[in-house]
Amino acid sequence: MTTIATPSLADFRRVVIKVGSSLLVDSATSRKGSRLRHAWLAALAEDIAELHGRGADVLVVSSGAIALGRTVLGLPSGALKLEESQAAAAVGQIALARNWAEALSHHGITAGQVLVTLADTEERRRYLNARATTAKLLEMRAVPVINENDTVATSEIRYGDNDRLAARIATLAEADLLVLLSDIDGLYTAPPATDPTARPIPVVEAITASIEAMAGGAASEFSRGGMRTKIEAGKIATAAGAHMVIADGRVKNPLRAIATGARCTWFLTPSNPVTARKRWIAGTLEPRGTVHVDAGAARALRSGASLLPAGMKRVDGAFRRGDAVIIRDEAGREIGRGLIGYDAEEAQRIAGKSSRAIEAVLGYAGRATVIHRDDLALVGRDDADIAITASAQDLLDRSPQSLT
Question: Is the full-model pTM beyond 0.90?
Fold first, then answer.
């Protein structure tokens, strides 16, 4: 039987780490009042600093705001009404952000708070804004600490159900690894709490129906997402070109434990974030318009550059910012497809202008690029000319990328 090699934590360039409430909150005192586990957070910050120090980009998706806020407000244990959850989140988010900022600052790392809602990963304009903000924070070597904006949630809020949010963030940020720190050390053939014959699974090459059947329920009061949501997160992440690992977060320095061979489950992807994104742009989205470019822009695009306003000659179609468009050269040949950064009317107004003139023309300082090279798939390139199978298409349709 062939042994599948597991990835090394040191190999990844951009890592999203999901931390659940059950890890951050001291469950032993939760019924009297939830308290942050400062020593555990400090140890995790050490791990993050190690990754960050070797040049990796790190993003954190952190739960815990409601658990902390309910203590400050004196709310009882058990289920909360929606408005109580929102109030608890409003108070707890301040404490959560402060503690993350303090823990990371001990290592000279700046934390940036990013609050998102479901619409921010599904509505095209808001997705692009969130993506641009996250990219700028990473460019400036900050660590974004991301949480769902529970203060404005319009549906039931559930502790610890940030697995899928973390996968969406990994997709948005084009991460190549998603780490789900949990209160279990990976996927088992059956729920280990109820089945003594359950065996750990170190590597999952593909998420099949049999893998999904192995997922059980939640393991603690605070971690209500359970293995099922982790498997769903795995579908999203691996379809977007990111590996995923489920590991025991209860130990001190959990990332270091993964790196040194602690038991965990790796979910492998056959792709990478760039290739997955190019596939999606080239073969999944229906173009909403056409951008015609001059010869100089065509050469620049083929050499890997972004499309600037000066290179545009005209636009056709009624597209909106974030839509897919076809790019054609002066002979009418299709160069590629990309996600455009302006509405059709705005794009037409700045066509042929320099990037410095955007503010004068539109009345606001827009983005310097019309189509960024990361959002561009060129015709004939290996990373774009890839057929999408029905199963892969289904996963892409269910991922946040398909909604951008």
Answer: no
150: which DSSP letter? G
Name the percent of the chain in helix, strand, coil, to the closest 5. 40, 20, 40
Q: Is the pLDDT of residue 199 over 90?
A: yes
CB of 319 within 8 A of CB of 326? no
**Could you give the CA distance from residue 220 to residue 180 in angstroms, rounded to a whole number?**
16
DSSP assignment letter at 215: -
Q: What's the pLDDT score for residue 13?
A: 95
Tokens of 4: 């599948």
Q: Are strands 376-378 and 334-339 parallel, antiparallel or unpaired?
A: antiparallel
Signed CA dihedral, 123, 335, 374, 392: sign only: positive
Reading the block at residue 278, the tokens are 């190019």
The better pLDDT of the pair 271, 396 is held by: 271
Cα–Cα distance measured from residue 133 to residue 387, given in angstroms and rounded to the nearest whole number: 32
- Predicted pLDDT of residue 399: 36
Rounded to whole angstroms, the Cα distance separating 266 from 177 reads 10
Could you tell me the CA-to-CA distances from 351 to 291, 292, 309, 329 in Å, in that order?
A: 10, 10, 5, 14
Q: Render 120-148 in DSSP notation, one character per residue.
A: HHHSHHHHHHHHHHHHHHHHTT-EEEEEE
Residue 168 is inside which H or E element, if any?
A: helix 163-172
Which tens digit of pLDDT belongs to each residue from 254-289? Answer: 999 999 999 999 999 988 887 777 877 776 678 899
